[in-house]
Design brief:
about 180 residues, alpha+beta, 10 strands, six-stranded antiparallel β-sheet
């Protein structure tokens, strides 16, 4: 009886680790970026929305490069979202109180992608807290929209351009 239990435990552990290994082989990262312009006329301590142009995805090429296709993609989640000030180059995020980014497509509802509240940094880049929402339908689409909601804690004397670097973790089925 003891040897059957050991054999069953061994088989189960091999099966579980081999599933993880297969998932690792079929997991890759898609990167996209976009720019956000925060206007100097944005109100202080009130949320203001920034609507940006659609982001064209390169997902079909990424799927092909990773030897898969959209129909085999089973799980997409955001892995990281980093904001960096590109103009003016000497500006830091001391002016920003909070930021929330939302994603949508023409066929899908808007959901929150990442956020950061009570920002208290003196650098020109910040990492946002990513949600754990499934993003399959957004990344499979040819393009998606990013809406940004910012709350300022001080008045801006000139517009600030921020680059948003997004990295998505994609897992596909083998067949």
């Amino acid at each position: 009886m003891k040897s059957k239990f050991i054999a069953l435990t061994l088989c189960l552990s091999v099966f579980l680790t081999s599933c993880d290994a297969v998932d690792d082989l079929l997991t890759f990262t898609i990167s996209n970026d976009t720019s956000i312009k925060i206007k100097s006329t944005s109100p202080v301590n009130l949320p203001s929305e920034i609507i940006m142009p659609e982001v064209t995805t390169n997902s079909s090429a990424e799927f092909e490069n990773n030897k898969t296709k959209a129909s085999l993609v089973k799980d997409v989640k955001i892995r990281s979202l980093k904001l960096s000030i590109t103009d003016p180059s000497d500006k830091t995020f001391t002016f920003l109180k909070s930021v929330h980014l939302y994603i949508s497509t023409t066929d899908s509802n808007e959901i929150e992608l990442a956020y950061q509240d009570n920002i208290n940094v003196t650098t020109n880049s910040i990492d946002l807290i990513c949600t754990d929402k499934k993003l399959d339908e957004y990344i499979k689409a040819s393009s998606y929209k990013i809406r940004t909601q910012v709350t300022l804690k001080e008045t801006l004397t000139k517009d600030v351009t921020v680059k948003a670097d997004m990295k998505f973790r994609v897992t596909a089925d083998p067949f």
